[in-house]
Specification:
InterPro entries: Split_barrel_FMN-bd (IPR012349). This is Flavin reductase. The chain crosses the membrane at residues 26-48. Keywords: Membrane, Transmembrane, Transmembrane helix. With 52 residues, the chain is of the alpha+beta class. The protein contains one helix and two strands. A two-stranded antiparallel sheet has the order 1-2. The radius of gyration is 13 Å and the shape is flat. 0% of the residues are buried.
Length: 52
Amino acid sequence: MREAEPVSAASLRQALANLASGVTVITAYGAAGPLGLAATSFVSVSLFPRYS
């Protein structure tokens, strides 16, 4: 498993500005393997500090 690369504030802001409403799919890789979640709402609460 490789370490996740940090995301810059500008990249996060650009990604969230282009996020259309609807279904959002969130994926990660955990100790048990790949994980996924489908959400109908997504909100970024802070850029400083970024929550991860």
